[in-house]
Every structure is written in structure tokens, then in C-alpha cells.
Amino acid sequence: MQLQFVGCGDAFGSGGRFNTCFHVTGESVNFLIDCGASSLPALKRLAIAREDIDLVLITHFHGDHFGGLPFLLLDAQFTRRGRPLVIAGPQGIEMRLTQVMEALFEHSSNTKQRFDLSVVALSPEETRTFGAVKVTPYPVVHGESGGPFLAYRIEAEGRIIAYSADTEWTETLIPAGRNADLFISEAYYYDRIVKNHLSLKTLETNLPEINPKRLVLTHMSEDMLGRLDTLGHTAASDGMIVEL
User: Fold this and answer.
1) pTM metric for this prediction
2) Contact criterion met (CB below 8 Å) for 122 and 152
């Protein structure tokens, strides 16, 4: 199984990076974690076959994590996708998806898809299974609008992938990421403490309790990108592949 960082940038494209989108593939799984606004061109640049993707997991409703769905769905329609697709995310996802479809492409939410589309709302700490993918969401803290906000602990093919999503430090990151084969964590700033985002120094303080087998940092600001050679941790880059 492998995870490829289709996009690992922040909302503002710091460092010229694409918005958040991770592609996970294995013998029995093929899914995305988040689908930010720039995800469709990023997927095409990496020659990733969108037809083969079975599931999209959305962590929250900010554009850099959610805004690519209208483009992905319309692309699927126009390329005559036949394979069913599941989109799962926080409570309210069906209404939010309709709203963003209409905001970007008027009347597109009323178009009958050529493929079976299921939109599933997830509840915090309630595990759901999608084929060979088992997903447990954990609530995280990322402001007042654009939520609910979820981190994910994902089990597939004997491996565990955890993703903090966008959040300030919260104790739920410990069970979400504990002993994961891969823990992908936001590290927006190096040591600056701000609401709704996580600094690397805060993460490092709590990392022994999470104890992941492998850590990769993502969603980094220019402050972090200027320090990549001195971080002491693996930092994501667009296109980077992690073997699990």
C-alpha cells in the first residue's frame, strides 16, 4: 500500500504547493483524503486515474480541503465514469456539497450522475467501513466556520494511517494517531502559537504520547518551508510517495 501527496500546501499555496489531497492505493483500496480546490489538475499532473478512486474522505469544509469536489464530480460526469463513488465527511456534508456545487457551477447539483454517488455523514469516534477501508473520525479544533472538523484514523490492508487535518493542539490527536504506521500532521508554524493551527514545537511536545512509526509534516506556511533543511522530520512535498 502507498500514499501519494497529490497536494500538501496550505490554503494560500505557500511554496507553490497544491491544496491538500492525499491518494492511497493498495491491492484492495483506492481513495483520497481531502480534495482541495486545486486537486483535479494535481491529480492529472500525476497521471492518477480518477475512475479508479472509490472513496473520498473530507476532513472539513474549507476550500483548500473540500473545494475540489465540484471539479472532480463534473470531470467524472464528462469522462463517463461508471464506477460508484462514495464521498464521506463531517455532519452536513450533503448540504455543503450541494452549496459548493451551486456556487461554482449553477444547476450542477441537480444533474443526474452517470454513476452511483453516495454521500455519507460521519460522526466523531464512530467507526465506519467502506469496502476494505475502516475509518474512525476524531473531533479537532479549527475555528467556528467550515466545520465540523475531523481528524482521521484509517485502517486498511493491515496498516494504519492517521491524519490530524487542520487543528490546534487537542488531546483527541493522541488516540487518532497512537502507534500509527503513518501519522500525517499539520505543522503550520515552527514555534508560533495561534488559534486553530498547530506548530511543530507543540506537536513535538506531545509526540511521545502519539508514538507514530512514521511522521510526515504537511500544510506548512512559508515560515516552515524556510526551515525544511533543519526540521529533523520528514516534510511532505507534492508528488511524494510513502510506502506502507
Assistant:
1) 0.97
2) no
Query: Which tens digit of pLDDT belongs to each residue from 35-51?
Result: 999 999 999 999 999 99
Confidence bin at 19 (pLDDT 50/70/90): very high
Please tell me the total count of domains within the chain: 1
> For position 85, which CATH number holds?
3.60.15.10
Task: Place 191 in a pLDDT band, splitting at 50, 70 and 90.
Answer: very high
Radius of gyration of the chain measured on its C-alpha atoms: 17
Give the range of the structural domain holding residue 38, as residue numbers without chain letter: 2-243
